[in-house]
Amino acid sequence: MEDVDKILLNMIGTKASQNQYNLFKMKACWSEIAGKNNANHCIPVKLDRRILTLKVDSSVWANQFLYYKIQFIEKINRFMGVDYVKDIKFIVGSNIKIHIKKINKNIKTHKDKIDLPPLNDSEKEAIKIKFSHIQNDKIRNAVINAEEKRYGLEKLFNEDKIKKCPLCGSYIKDKRNICFGCERKRQENKETEIWKLIIKEPWIGWNEANKVIKCDEFEFDIVKNDVKAYYFEKIRNKTADAKEEMIAIQLKSGKPYALIGEKEKVNILRFLQKGKL
After folding, report:
1. Under 8 Å between Cβ of 211 and 204
2. CB contact set of 192 (below 8 Å; sequence gap of 6+)
């Protein structure tokens, strides 16, 4: 994910933009961060001044998460690699189950177990000899176990029972054509391209964007809402420069800047400065 990070952070390099992009990353990996069960009941919606806002599907779950807030913060910061989040706010939202279900469908991991064929004695002996030079027993046994699993997977591949990812060569244990890691990276690259397209043409809608970048309406809306949240927040905080104001006005009006009257531009800025999205 480092390449995608560099593209976006170079494109929008301010502190506020890093908040928005890190929120973007959290959404993409939320099931891994919060745990599959928890991710079915909450989703990150805002990150500001190191305070993360989570939308939860019921007050019961909100109370449950409040009890484990410290553990939540620790998990999030481990994922981020730094102490990025210092507090969490919980809000109860409507229709969140549908929203979460669609997101989880896009980012869920595939860890289906598969029965590996047993190795015969000569194969096991060959593997042991191959790694006999490793003196540490614990390390040597771990390496041997990993090689035995790889050997079993290679057998299944040669028997056409499993596939290899054509992009990275890892084994695919389900019906996918590429592995989950490559699929997620491809999705991240697509979202990056959508983000860049929206910044270039802030008035663009899904129908027009889909002609340039093939995407479904749901994933387009997620990215556009993130872009709106970033630029509208800059207006509210009075940190936007002239170019960012132009982008925000076009995002709000849904029209190219040249087609927006001066009075409408002023009214939109006043509206956004009040913190209304």
Report:
1. no
2. 4, 7, 8
Tokens representing 150 are 């790889």
Does residue 123 contact residue 151 with C-beta atoms inside 8 Å? yes
72-128: per-residue pLDDT in tens?
A: 888 888 887 777 899 999 887 755 555 555 555 554 444 446 678 888 899 889 989
- Model confidence, pTM: 0.53
CA 145 to chain centre: 32
Exposure of 2 by Cβ count < 10 A (0-12 exposed, 13-18 middle, 19+ buried)? Answer: exposed
Residue that the structure tokens 């176990």 belong to: 145
Q: Copy the structure tokens of residue 224.
A: 């556009």
How many residues appear in the chain?
Answer: 277
Number of CB atoms found within 10 A of residue 187's CB: 15
Question: Residue 67: exposed, middle, or buried by beta-carbon count in 10 A (0-12, 13-18, 19+)?
Answer: exposed
Q: For residue 145, what are its two tokens?
A: 């176990």
Q: Is 49 exposed, middle or buried (0-12, 13-18, 19+ CB in 10 A)?
A: exposed
